[in-house]
Task: inverse folding
């Protein structure tokens, strides 16, 4: 299987190349292609992860369907034959890693929800007793489940670091009406998905969602509950007070933390064993979550 780091379709209009996705304008719709690029600490690494684009597309498609009773989403189809004729010639590249979607206007805040305390949230808590300004009970340990999920939005950066913001700041950015809907949808999706995932042996520690406006309605866009946007833990290995064995790109972050690297571009090349293990974990989580 070839690793796709970026796409080049000369007769299609490229309008965006994000950390992972290439976006093409098809008049009143968009073609979103998930590449195998991997970003860590908001830096795109030189080598990709085999099969990653397919996993992101498979999982997003699965969760768009499962959460459609909570909020509408932008997905039209992932089937190449149902897409406009001009993309058919690129089927070999697009198959399994592309989505035809509604052309929504992105709402420029990322919706982060945390059900467990870990990562940057744990660092914040140890310093302040709070996460993103939200006061939490004293005495929480690494990976503890929170009394209830907390909403901790951030800025949306195509390049560089996303930064945590208060809910009030989010209201200033997108407007109070939209902020309320985004927050409520995020917590509902997380609550629903967490229960479904747990029934398959997976804990969703936290996740990040994005929303947009389509025909004056807030809809879910981008990706949903993938290893790029979420922390997944094995439920049967979970143990409070310890760093968990993650089923996402944490293996890459852990490796990078051992290097003398300032977390600025250009990023280091990943060793083959780290790339292969990451690919294996991405496929494993997709298999577990989508199994009926």
Result:
């Amino acid at each position: 299987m070839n690793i796709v780091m970026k796409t080049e379709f000369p007769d299609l209009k490229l309008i965006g190349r994000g950390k992972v996705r290439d976006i093409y304008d098809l008049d009143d719709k968009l073609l979103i292609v998930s590449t195998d690029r991997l970003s860590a600490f908001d830096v795109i690494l030189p080598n990709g992860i085999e099969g990653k684009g397919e996993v992101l597309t498979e999982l997003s498609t699965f969760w768009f369907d499962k959460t459609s009773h909570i909020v509408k989403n932008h997905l039209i189809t992932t089937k190449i034959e149902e897409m406009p004729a001009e993309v058919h010639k690129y089927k070999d590249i697009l198959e399994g890693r592309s989505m035809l979607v509604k052309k929504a206007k992105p709402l420029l805040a990322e919706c982060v929800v945390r059900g467990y305390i870990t990562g940057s949230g744990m660092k914040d808590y140890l310093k302040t007793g709070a996460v993103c300004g939200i006061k939490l009970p004293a005495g929480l340990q690494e990976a503890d489940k929170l009394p209830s999920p907390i909403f901790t939005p951030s800025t949306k950066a195509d390049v560089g670091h996303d930064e945590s913001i208060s809910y009030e700041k989010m209201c200033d950015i997108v407007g109070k009406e939209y902020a309320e809907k985004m927050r409520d949808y995020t917590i509902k999706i997380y609550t629903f998905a967490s229960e479904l995932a747990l029934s398959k042996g997976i804990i969703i520690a936290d996740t990040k969602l994005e929303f947009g406006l389509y025909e004056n309605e807030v809809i879910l866009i981008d990706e949903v509950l993938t290893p790029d946007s979420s922390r997944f833990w094995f439920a049967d290995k979970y143990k409070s007070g310890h760093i968990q064995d993650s089923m996402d790109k944490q293996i890459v972050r852990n490796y990078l933390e051992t290097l003398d690297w300032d977390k600025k571009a250009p990023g280091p090349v990943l060793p083959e064993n780290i790339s292969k293990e990451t690919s294996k974990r991405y496929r494993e989580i997709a298999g577990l979550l989508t199994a009926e």
User: Anything to note?
Assistant: The radius of gyration is 19 Å. The longest helix spans residues 176-198. The helical segments are 52-66, 91-94, 119-128, 167-174, 176-198, 250-257, 272-290.
